[in-house]
Write a structure and sequence with these properties.
By secondary structure, this protein is of the alpha+beta class. Helix content is 27%, strand content 43%. A 4-stranded antiparallel sheet has the order 2-3-1-4, covered by helices on one side. β2 and β3 form a beta hairpin. The chain is elongated, with a radius of gyration of 13 Å. The chain starts with a strand and ends in a 7-residue tail after the last strand.
Length: 90
């Protein structure tokens, strides 16, 4: 990954009943507001939430934020999907 500029998404599925989890995820996101372009939060059912974060910035920094969010206790599934910013495409 390194220092190159990327865009992408971080997708999380988590149990919103897990104590302090939503607060932790929000705290992490606020700490990295410069990398997060937008978020979508969806209530999948009574217990599960889906959150998609659109991110843009240095690849290494994005990977670190994704790893921190995905590793949070109570996150059931997480994935970083990386794409181009478009500048390197012809």
């Amino acid at each position: 990954f390194g220092n190159r500029q990327i865009a992408g998404t971080i997708t999380l599925v988590y149990d919103h009943h897990k104590p302090h989890l939503q607060e932790l995820l929000t705290h992490i996101q606020h700490d990295h507001h410069d990398l997060i372009v937008s978020t979508v939060h969806v209530h999948l059912d009574h217990d599960n939430c889906l959150e998609v974060l659109v991110v843009r910035g240095r690849a290494g920094e994005i990977r670190a934020v994704a790893d921190e969010l995905i590793a949070a206790r109570g996150v059931k599934h997480g994935k970083l999907t990386v794409t181009s910013t478009g500048k390197d495409l012809v």
